[in-house]
Write a structure and sequence with these properties.
The complex is a heterodimer of chains A (260) and B (305). In chain A, 36% of the residues lie in helices and 25% in strands. Chain A has 260 residues and is of the alpha/beta class. Chain A has a six-stranded mixed β-sheet, with helices on both faces. The chains are: A alpha/beta (260), B mainly alpha (305).
């Protein structure tokens, strides 16, 4: 069975012009992401993992190579509202309730009031925040706020979910919990997920495909297809398979990192 | 409550004590002159001798005349109770339509202030929206807005009055124009800052939803600017009042708190000047408090309070 890739990058380059001269943020990036994949991008700061995600979202424009999202250019895909984006900070509007925040993209996209209410309820349920719709963001914990921002990205039924270190600012315990929740959510919704992270265990635990990147210039050094089953309890992290993949990711990171 | 009350009362009492004390040297020369004419013994004797002496030295040498420094008709510095009683007389004991009523003059000033404030705040908001959305406006309007505030208002106010008078506008409108001239600036500055307060991430987020410029304005920029807007409105309304007062000085219509200040100084009616000053200050405080109340209510409803 040949699958059409949801996201396909070929020889992708991106060079930023800065005051200190050009900086090559991405160099010759080649990657295929299939429907239903959970892909993590991992690497040290400056390796271009966030930049690559932003290219997919059409928030940055590549300077060379080709990139397609659902067979369209990223700009067309953005206009077709092909993806939901989750940032590191929850970025909820303080003047809107949780439900109001989740409703915001739906209002912008012109859904009817009844559809808005129905979709808001559905995603609140999905991220386990049912009953919190009328609270304001400051009344919720950091983890709950981030769940609300995930709900907001899911509200309009985009097939792709792009997440830029969504749990980076949260403590380890909350993070574990949200990782587990995210896997369940992924299993239920069958979305294609692109996930940027700094954490090796997080990347290995979540992904079907781990993309290891390295800086100066930002490039892919290894792509690991995870042999772990789709069903993953938290204690899978102590299994030999898990540790083996984690080891390979660490090796990849080390190889790509020039300690100069 | 008690924790707040005691410090507040202490501060007010200290200010009052300082004010009464200041009245003594300020008014002592006139008090000594009157006392000497009535045959009392003062030290030193003779107006010419005292003319060049320090008022503080005179005050120290003549404690018996201190009482007389607080009750003069035309003191250099009126005592607090004189100002309060003049305020009471000119608000409560004369008809509010009389030209001797501070309520009458206050209303004239207030109406021009409110009109000027509405024009100024409206203009400020419109300019800010333009500045945020158009680079050309950002570069062309902002420097002029800043330049406009470096011109002393006292210099430009008479010209505005004269120019508008020559096209048949007088009374309320010219004063409101001067008032708007002063109040639009803080609103522009605050509103520009407020409309630009959403972070790059907030702006990226609405971009991923393919929001139009109008949508990101109404749903993101405008609500985000609310706290900034209210802060500048408070400054703006106080500036508005100052603008109106300045506009009333040369207008020659014989109405308004500004006129009251001016006529008081023509006739040496210091008590009248001070009571008009206090009426102005009270009016300004009420206007700022009103905006503060609106701010609290709006921000609370927005969940920002």
């Amino acid at each position: 069975m040949t699958q059409i890739p949801v996201i396909e990058a070929k020889h992708l380059d991106l060079t930023f012009q800065t005051n200190d001269g050009p900086v090559q943020a991405l160099k010759d990036v080649n990657l295929q992401i299939s429907k239903g994949d959970f892909v993590s991008f991992i690497g040290p700061s400056g390796c271009g993992k966030t930049t690559f995600l932003r290219c997919i979202a059409a928030l940055e424009e590549p300077t060379g190579g080709s990139l397609t999202v659902n067979g369209l250019s990223p700009e067309e895909a953005r206009k077709a509202r092909a993806y939901g984006y989750v940032f590191q900070a929850a970025g909820l509007y303080p003047w809107r309730t949780i439900a109001g925040n989740i409703r915001l993209p739906l209002e912008i996209m012109g859904y009817s009031r009844a559809e808005q209410a129905e979709k808001v309820d559905k995603v609140l349920e999905l991220v386990d925040l049912a009953g919190f719709g009328r609270k304001f963001p400051w009344q919720l914990s950091g983890g709950m706020q981030q769940r609300a921002s995930i709900a907001r990205a899911l509200a309009f039924d985009a097939d792709i979910l792009l997440m830029d270190e969504p749990f980076g600012a949260l403590d380890e315990i909350v993070r574990d919990h949200l990782n587990e929740e995210l896997l369940k959510l992924w299993a239920r919704t069958e979305k294609t997920i692109g996930f940027v992270t700094h954490s090796i265990p997080e990347a290995v635990y979540l992904s079907t495909k781990i993309v290891v990147m390295s800086p100066r210039p930002g490039r892919i050094t290894d792509v690991i297809e995870s042999p772990l089953p789709k069903e993953r309890p938290l204690d899978i992290r102590d299994s030999p398979e898990f540790l083996e993949i984690a080891h390979r990711v660490r090796e990849g990171l080390r190889a790509g990192h020039a300690y100069d | 409550m008690k924790r707040v009350l005691i410090p507040v009362i202490t501060v007010v009492a200290a200010l009052m004590a300082f004010w009464y004390a200041a009245c003594v040297p300020m008014n002592i020369k006139f008090a000594l002159m009157t006392a000497e004419r009535q045959g009392e013994v003062v030290s030193p004797e003779g107006m010419m001798t005292r003319r060049d002496m320090s008022a503080i030295v005179l005050a120290v040498k003549n404690p018996a005349q201190w009482d007389d420094t607080w009750v003069q008709d035309k003191p250099r510095l009126p005592a607090p109770h004189q100002v309060v009683s003049e305020l009471w007389k000119s608000t409560m004991q004369v008809s509010p339509t009389s030209k001797r009523s501070l309520v009458f003059h206050g209303w004239i000033t207030l109406s021009a202030t409110l009109l000027g404030f509405v024009i100024g705040a409206g203009l400020g908001i419109v300019l800010a929206v333009g500045i945020v959305h158009s680079r050309a406006m950002d570069m062309s309007v902002m420097p002029w807005a800043i330049a406009s505030q470096t011109i002393p208002i006292l210099a430009i106010a008479p010209m505005i009055i004269v120019v508008l008078n020559s096209v048949g506008l007088q009374g309320l409108v010219p004063k409101a124009v001067i008032s708007a001239y002063l109040s639009f600036f803080p609103v522009v500055v605050g509103m520009v800052k407020g409309l630009r307060s959403p972070s790059p991430m907030d702006l990226d987020l609405v971009k991923t939803w393919r929001a139009t410029k109008a949508q990101s304005f109404w749903k993101l920029r405008l609500p985000a600017s609310a706290p900034y807007l209210f802060a500048s409105l408070k400054i703006g309304v106080a500036s508005s009042l100052v603008g109106t007062i300045v506009g009333e000085l040369p207008s020659g219509t014989g109405q308004g708190l500004g006129f009251r200040l001016l006529s008081g100084s023509y006739y040496g009616q210091t008590v009248q000047i001070w009571s008009a000053l206090f009426a102005t200050a009270i009016l300004a405080a009420c206007l700022v408090a009103l905006i503060g109340a609106a701010e609290r209510s709006v921000l609370k409803r927005m969940g920002l309070g």
